[in-house]
Amino acid sequence: MVFDFSGHTAVITGAASGIGAAAARQLSAQGANVLIADINDAAGDAVVASLNAARPGTALYAHLDVTDAARFAEVCQLAFDRFGALTILVNNAGRGSLSETPDIPLEEWRSVIEIDLFGVFYGCRAAIPLMRKSGGGNIINIASLSGIHADHGFAAYNAAKAGVINYTRTLALDHSKDNIRSNAICPGWIETPLTEFTKAVPQIADVWTNNIPLKRGGTADEIANVISFLASPLASYVTGAAIVVDGGLGCSNGQPNLPDILSRL
């Protein structure tokens, strides 16, 4: 489904690749002005160049480390000043960490929480006043299935993403009065640079895929579809939701597939 985002401006973090880049392409193709924010300047510039080739002057790149609250405020203001509004914020930037609690270095724990949770807060804190001036808006936070169900060895990531989900609900409670809807998307295994490590060992990828009812990883474009929907008028009564997009991965309670086991006896 194609939506019309003419007159809208989106700030998207982590938009030089993966889900963020897919969201930028989709929102731009549907008429939005887009500010791409990332720490990968070369990749970010390339995405902006491709968007401006199709729609000149409608895309902008800004270097942003989401742990820098002051810089986040500057970037949101830049989008507002350049395009005259800020109506969509996609907090997508994130990082993972594979460590159990006794083994995780304190600086790594702080880094994951700072990027994955504080970064979302910094973005919302900067964007909400500008969305008020714009007449309202949509905040879409990329959480994770890991914020609902825990993973082995991902202590910091699980904690941060769970925080994003409940923080998103608070945003919905506090800012519906400002005509701002706030929702979280909880992806499962999506094939992006963040999950490339799973392909390094075929056994990991095979087990992961076999646990997904749809028997494949998701794509960045499939998450971008949900982002577009949530930002559109079709989602006008959706706020405070944590929408799972995981191919059915989170449906299981962890019990073995008894019918499958019995069929092979």
Flag low-confidence runs.
none
Structure summary, number of beta strands? 7
Main CATH class: Alpha Beta
Q: Spell out the helices and strands N to C.
A: EHEHEHEHEHEHHHEH
Rg calc = 19 Å
Summarize the amount of helix as a percent range.
40-55%
**CATH-level-4 superfamily name:** NAD(P)-binding Rossmann-like Domain
Residue share in β-strands: 5-15%
Mean residue pLDDT: 94
Label this structure with key terms.
globular; 14% strand; alpha/beta; 265 residues; 7-stranded parallel sheet; 46% helix; 7 strands; 9 helices
Q: Can you give a write-up of this model?
A:
The chain has a 7-stranded parallel β-sheet with strand order 3-2-1-4-5-6-7, sandwiched between helices. Helix content is 46%, strand content 14%. The protein has one domain (9-263): Rossmann fold, CATH 3.40.50. The chain is an alpha/beta fold and 265 residues long. The chain has 9 helices and 7 strands.
Q: Care to give the gist of this entry?
A:
This protein is an alpha/beta fold and 265 residues long. 46% of the residues lie in helices and 14% in strands. The chain is built from nine helices and seven strands; from the N terminus they run βαβαβαβαβαβαααβα.
